[in-house]
Design brief:
With 204 residues, the chain is mainly α. The protein contains 9 helices and no strands. It is globular, with a radius of gyration of 20 Å. The protein starts with a helix and ends in a 10-residue tail after the last helix.
Length: 204
Amino acid sequence: MFLSPETFVVLSVMIFGLIHSLFARDFVKKKLYIINNYRGFYIINALFTLILLTLIEMTFAKEGSKIDVIIKNPLLGSFFVLIGGFFFMGGLIQFYLSVGLERSKLIKTGFYAFSRHPIYLGGIVSLVSLGLFFIENTVHISFIFSLAFYLFVGSLIEDYYLLRDFSDYAEYKNICGKYLPWRKKHLKFLFQNIKPKKKKVKVY
C-alpha cells in the first residue's frame, strides 16, 4: 500500500470532517433548499458517513501494530469516558429539547452554563480517554485522536458562526468558558444558573 493504514485512516477522518462541515455551511444549504427537513437530512448524512468511516477503520485495524496502553489505569479511564459521555448526551438532549433541529436561539442554562460547547467537550474527553487508557492498536489510536482533533476544530468553527449569527453571543462568550469554567466570571455565571430563582410573592 502506498499509504500506511494509520495515514489512510487519518485522511479518511479529514475527508469525513470536510464533508460534514460543508453540509453545515449556508451556501450548501441554499443549493439544497428543496430538502424540507434539512437538519434531519444533515444528521442522517453525518451518521451514515460516520458508520462508513468506522467500517473503513475496522478494516484497516487488522494491519495496525500492537502497542502498549499509554496509561494503565482502566478504572480512571472508565471514569473519564463516562464523564465525557454524560456531557455529550446531556448537551445533545438539552439542545434538541430547547431548540429542536434548527438553532434559532442561544442556550445559556444547564450544560450550556458550564460550557459553551458541552457536546464537543464530552466527545473530546471520551475519545481522548479511550485513546489514552484503552487502545492497543496504532490504527485505532490514529482514528480516535483524529476524531478528537476534528471535534476541537469543529468547536472553533462553531464559535465563529455563533458570533456571526447571534448578537448576544459575544457577551455569553465573555462570561462562559469554551469548555470549562476556569475563570472567576465563568464560575459566577455557572452558579447564577444553578441557584434556584426565588419566586416573587404578590402582595395584595
